[in-house]
Write a structure and sequence with these properties.
The protein has about 260 residues and is an alpha/beta fold. It is about 45% helix and about 20% strand. It has a single domain, classed as Rossmann fold. It has eleven helices and eight strands. Strand 1 and strand 2 form a beta hairpin. It starts with a strand and ends with a helix.
């Protein structure tokens, strides 16, 4: 489905019915990376998955794609769907966007889901790596980056069809959007103080074998939020929602049901 935000096309997918859950995709993917949640959403859950600007069916705008810009787009989507509040979640970069949304408009966040992500800003070395990725995809396209990035994104136990689908998805993404989002991640704020002030319910999900945002970072993040629950998914890597969809969906469904019960 599509709508216009500030004159630009913005695409999103939905699945299921019930409590609205906005799920924000990681880097460099699209809303398709939530296929296990869209195709088989937990009972009582309405999954809403947008394509960030420049990704999938959403139009690219000039300049760096900041986490705040993606969060503002997501808030405009909630407005268009006439949703005053929603459970807001994201995987990896999508988690950064979810935290940016919380910073921009905390009243819209009924619950927070942070999967395979962390609240830290990039250090100098991290910023250099982001810029190297941006320049690489601008010059060479997505195929080489997709092949080199995949082993860090998925655990060795990931099913072959999952590896193939995620690699194909990365290859399909616009290199200009990938570069702009990489630079946006390099510029993002540290969110630890933000999370320490968040008093609502939160679910933290992490793959046991996540090498990018490992369980140790998830445990540190859990300490910041008094009403948070941590779920570590065995034998999953950085994309636990596609590597272990049943376990991920069970954790999501239980969390959404608990938030809904609180009203």
């Amino acid at each position: 489905m599509n709508l216009k935000i500030d004159g630009a096309q913005y695409s999103y997918r939905t699945g299921g019915s019930g409590e609205p859950v906005l799920l924000l995709h990681g880097f460099p993917f699209t809303s398709e990376s939530f296929w296990p949640q869209l195709d088989s959403p937990p009972a009582g859950v309405r999954v809403i998955c947008p394509d960030h600007r420049g990704f999938g069916g959403s139009e690219l705008k000039p300049g760096v794609i900041t986490m705040e810009a993606m969060a503002k787009d997501a808030l405009a989507l909630l407005d268009a769907l006439k949703l005053d509040r929603a459970i807001v979640g994201g995987v990896s970069m999508g988690g950064y966007v979810a935290m940016a949304l919380l910073r921009l408009d905390p009243a819209r966040v009924k619950g927070l889901v942070l999967a395979d992500t962390h609240p830290l800003a990039d250090d100098a070395a991290g910023k250099e790596k982001r810029e190297a990725v941006a320049k690489d995809v601008e010059k060479n396209g997505m195929a080489g980056y997709a092949a080199s990035a995949l082993p860090n994104l998925l655990a060795p136990e990931a099913k072959p069809y999952v590896k193939a689908r995620m690699q194909d998805l990365m290859k399909s993404v616009n290199p200009a959007a990938t570069a702009a989002a990489a630079r946006g991640m390099a510029a993002r704020s540290d969110s630890r103080e933000l999370l320490s002030r968040y008093s609502g319910p939160a679910l933290i999900v992490v793959g046991e074998k996540d090498a990018i945002a490992p369980p140790e970072k998830a445990r540190e993040m859990q300490k910041l939020m008094p009403r948070s629950k941590l779920v570590v998914i065995p034998n999953a890597g950085h994309l636990a929602n596609v590597e272990a969809p049943q376990e991920f969906n069970e954790a999501l469904g239980e969390f959404v049901a608990s938030v809904a019960a609180q009203g």
